[in-house]
């Protein structure tokens, strides 16, 4: 049976901690969703821990500042962990320090954070001199598509270069616009035969870090059966929860809003289409919800 709920409180008493996606659940890049913030505040008031878990390819401090600036309550979460945090660790593991960066200038803050963490700044060089590639997104994600990068990806492949993908998301909604992420370029590079190392969801290290932060907030160990992952991305949030052995709450009004007739998020998702989506990805969240609400 496909369970659809209208409020987090219908299932929240089963859990001691929530790992909550940010973009698509708490905000759309332009404005926060007030009810989503209220739902997490209410959960924390009952003694639960909340860690925001994001595939943003930047370190957690600026992401936390962005979340607060967009209007998410500071009482809605205990900590933030990002794909950027995990990426810094992956950069440390590379044999060389010369890298080609594919991504927008706003992500250069990642290299400042790497200096603080490792004491050394990676050297940003041209494709010809690079020892590996770090992809944080498209350089101009509002005007470019994956096709624009085909020649560059083929040149990387010819050199046999490994790529670190700092954001496994394929697309996000920025307001009403659909924006390609680093994951779209990484997937194309893999299709061409390239090697990709992924940070962030759905891979294990970001969940391990998030769970450690949740336990620190609670001051006690938390069994994974008492942790709920919330997200709107099937490939990242929901599959990631399954692989981390966590229950998942699927927010259908984000990336997959087309599950709702005429994208009417006041009503439940189409149950037949929802079941098909679950079956296609071999995942079965404990419930689905149009938008996160108290």
Outline:
This protein has nine helices and 13 strands. It is α/β, with parallel strands linked by helices and 294 residues long.
How would you describe the overall organization of this protein?
The chain folds into 2 domains: 8-84 and 203-289, Rossmann fold; 86-198, Rossmann fold (3-Layer(aba) Sandwich), CATH 3.40.50.1000. 33% of the residues lie in helices and 18% in strands. α3 (83-92) crosses α4 and α5 (150-158) crosses α6. It is globular, with a radius of gyration of 19 Å. The protein is α/β, with parallel strands linked by helices.
Q: Secondary-structure element order, as H and E?
A: EHEHEHEHEEHEEEHEHEHEHE
CATH architecture of the largest domain: 3-Layer(aba) Sandwich
CATH superfamily of the largest domain: HAD superfamily/HAD-like
| Structural class label | alpha/beta
Task: Walk across the major sheet and give the strand order.
Answer: 3-2-1-11-12-13
Main sheet? 6 strands, parallel
Specify the CATH class of the largest domain.
Answer: Alpha Beta
The outline comes out as globular
User: How confident is the prediction overall: mean pLDDT?
Assistant: 94
Helix percentage range: 25-40%
Q: Estimate nothing, just give the exact number of structural domains.
A: 2
Radius of gyration: 19 Å
Low-confidence stretches are none
Tell me how many strands there are.
13
**How far apart are the first and last residues' alpha carbons, in Å?**
23 Å
| Number of helical regions | 9
Q: Tell me the CATH topology of the largest domain.
A: Rossmann fold
The percentage of residues in β strands lies in 15-25%
């Amino acid at each position: 049976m496909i369970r659809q709920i209208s409020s987090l409180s219908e299932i929240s008493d089963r859990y001691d901690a929530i790992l909550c996606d940010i973009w698509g659940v708490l905000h759309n890049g332009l404005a926060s969703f007030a009810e989503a913030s209220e739902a997490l505040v209410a959960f924390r008031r009952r003694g639960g821990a909340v860690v925001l878990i994001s595939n943003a390819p930047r370190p957690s401090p600026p992401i936390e500042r962005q979340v607060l600036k967009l209007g998410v309550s500071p009482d809605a979460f205990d900590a933030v962990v990002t794909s950027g945090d995990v990426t810094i660790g992956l950069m440390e593991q590379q044999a060389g320090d010369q890298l080609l960066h594919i991504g927008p200038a706003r992500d250069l803050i990642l290299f400042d954070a790497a200096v603080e963490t490792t004491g050394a700044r990676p050297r940003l060089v041209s494709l010809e001199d690079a020892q590996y590639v770090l992809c944080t997104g498209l350089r101009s994600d509002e005007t470019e598509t994956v096709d624009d990068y085909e020649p560059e990806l083929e040149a990387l492949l010819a050199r046999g270069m490994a790529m670190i993908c700092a954001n496994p998301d394929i697309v996000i909604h920025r307001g009403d616009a659909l924006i390609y992420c680093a994951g779209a370029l990484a997937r194309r590079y893999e299709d061409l035969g390239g090697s990709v190392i992924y940070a962030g969801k759905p891979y294990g290290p970001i969940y391990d870090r998030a769970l450690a932060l949740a336990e620190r907030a609670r001051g006690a160990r938390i069994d994974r059966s008492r942790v709920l992952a919330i997200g709107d991305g099937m490939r990242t949030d929901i599959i990631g929860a399954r692989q981390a052995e966590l229950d998942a709450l699927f927010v259908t009004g984000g990336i997959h809003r087309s599950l709702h007739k005429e994208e009417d998020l006041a009503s439940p998702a189409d149950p037949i289409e929802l079941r098909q989506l679950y079956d296609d990805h071999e995942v079965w969240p404990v419930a689905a919800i149009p938008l996160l609400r108290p």
